[in-house]
Amino acid sequence: MKTRKSKKEFENKYPVMDALKKGSLLTRLSALVFGAGCLAQGQIVKGIIFLAAEAAIIYYMIQTGLHNLSMLITLGELEQQKVWNDAKSVYEYVDGDRSQLILLFGIITLAIVLVLILLGRSSLRQAYKLECFRKEGRQIPGLREEIKDLFNGNLQITLLSFPVIGVLVFTILPLVFMISMAFTSYSVENSKLVLFDWVGLENFKRVIGLGGSLGKTFWPVLGWTLIWALAATFSNYFCGLILALFINWKEIRAKKMWRFFFVLTVAIPHFVTLLIMRTMLQPEGAINIMLRNMGILGTKESLPFFTNAAWARVTVILINIWVGVPYMLLQVTGILQNIPQELYEAARVDGAGPIVTFRKITLPYMMFIMMPYLITTFTGNVNNFNVIFLTSQGLPRPVDSTAGKTDLLVTWLYKLTIENQYYNVGAVIGIMTFVTLAVVSLITFKFSGSNRNEEAFR
Fold first, then answer.
1. Closest of 433, 397, 388 to residue 413, by C-alpha
2. CB 288 within 8 A of CB 303
3. What pLDDT, in 10s, does the model give residues 129-149?
4. 453 pLDDT band (50/70/90 cuts)?
5. Which residues of 105-136 are buried (b: 16+ CB within 10 A; e: fewer)?
6. Burial 318-338 (b: 16+ CB within 10 A, else e)
């Protein structure tokens, strides 16, 4: 019943299909001449706004838009030319087509076409709404009434308009532009940085396939990224949980002091801590020098913190525990203090010990509450650029590879685009990272207790 009510509540009373089937000729004409229905029904200002918006978009399409769409098919064909200037006795370079700008303007034009379609739908719906008002004998609202309604009944439209426009312009459009790069030859390879072409799924085949160097690099990096994300997430979670349980133990004194010491690391910027640790773990860093002075290592020996793959991976996980546990401690402490004490008292009456109580009450309750947060933390760890790049820098790195043994997809993406200028392959890696995160997060949350057993702890 709740579902039906919610559907009826948000159901559009004046759908476009009804306007096309039941509306008058003038109403249908509003889909071609924007604002015609509003002008005919007396809403002059709204009709003029619709008509002016349509005229502006049509003018843009005639002047520039149609050319942008036509160029979007080929992404340009005229290369930069070198022409001899007799007057100056020098060669001058004449600019040709720039595929990057052509792609950008083409996507913007497609967005404007979409806006034109949405305006047409809105014009048609408004005309049909006014026609229904007229048939029902209701008064046609004037400009003043509609402005008041924007700050009363339709306040959500007023409040959400600017954020939605901002997301579309500054997030969605750049995202579509970068995704489009994955289907082009935009790369330093074969000098395709100025004029490039559409290549379809060729870049995806190169990355996913095992035949080339990129494919042989992608799958190990993806595997290590998932292992790292799981290890970093659950190591921080269980270490923070154990630490919080220990501090909250009744026998422990000066609880506030212990929390202060552990949370003190939060006040230090992460990049400072990571750079200091990176310096300390170098072959000639403080740790190796101290071990040599203690006689544990020889005079020329060093622990391979960042030169051995296994050592480097364990090292970055331990560093992440150091910088991440204080945040988890704060999260866990707040939840532990809100677990109903009646559950523990009932368990003690039944003779349950600390281990059974932890396994049957504390851990299930924590997992139920924190599963959405753990999924968010997992996502953050997949994209944890700072810990890897500021400590190991992806090392150790094979000579013939663009990625190191500790590189994540996000750090490899940085190296492909910034260091090697493989922008098309970088776009593919970005898409694959998103797909991996979406699939893992959705499957995990779907089968978690937070989703399947929502009423369990209420």
1. 433
2. yes
3. 999 999 888 888 888 888 888
4. low
5. bbbbbbebeeebeebbebbbbbbbbbbbeeee
6. ebbbebbbbebbebbbebbee
